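Section 3.1: Structural characterization of target chains.
Under the original work plan, the team committed to producing a structural model for every single-chain target entering the pipeline before any wet-lab resources were allocated. The record below documents one such target. The sequence was received from the expression subgroup and is listed exactly as submitted; it comprises 211 residues.
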Amino acid sequence: MPYIKFVCVHSTVEQSLRYILNPDKTDELVYSDSLNCFNDAHCAYLNMKAVFEQHSTHKFNEPIPKTGKGTVKAIHIIQSFSPDDNVTPEQVQDIAKELVLRNFGEKAQAVIATHIDKAHIHAHIILNTYALDGQKFNSNWAAVQKARDLSDNICIERGIMPIMLKFNYEKGDNYSYGEWKHRKQGTSWKARIAEYIDSLIPLAKDLNELL
């Protein structure tokens, strides 16, 4: 399953766009796409600048202040898969695009690129902090967790399961994804019942007494 990371971009939006749209990392931009902007670093930067400045009181190219980090202009989202996931670049690109659409909406402005230059395939998303309609996106713990959960669900829908869930299926433990998450977090009532029964087995003389 992919690991999701959010990085706030305060002043280097065009540099970030150029980095993710590197032809050497994306098979000559075959694995790249965009939503509500051009699929070119400089043009995408200008598109995002126009939308940002329409809805914000700040300038898109304003420098970082001497104190503090300054205004977040874009969010750099990294969706990194393990080699054990056995995903193709096409799958990763499609999953990343679906994540943007389902998590941020059709009016979000983003550039999506999948890098294939490492053993672990990973997608990069540069998201404008403002959507076309003025909705503002924030980078905080709740936003990251929401994106991680949605990313997991999208992968499950496409047959890409967590390694532990695959292991349980192979053993014959047919946990649902929800049950797997509860067991992982220690909040499964089914697991608590199973542990209680296990504790009673040594004390029972036979099955009737156990029941």
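The CA atoms of residues 57 and 71 lie 10 Å apart.
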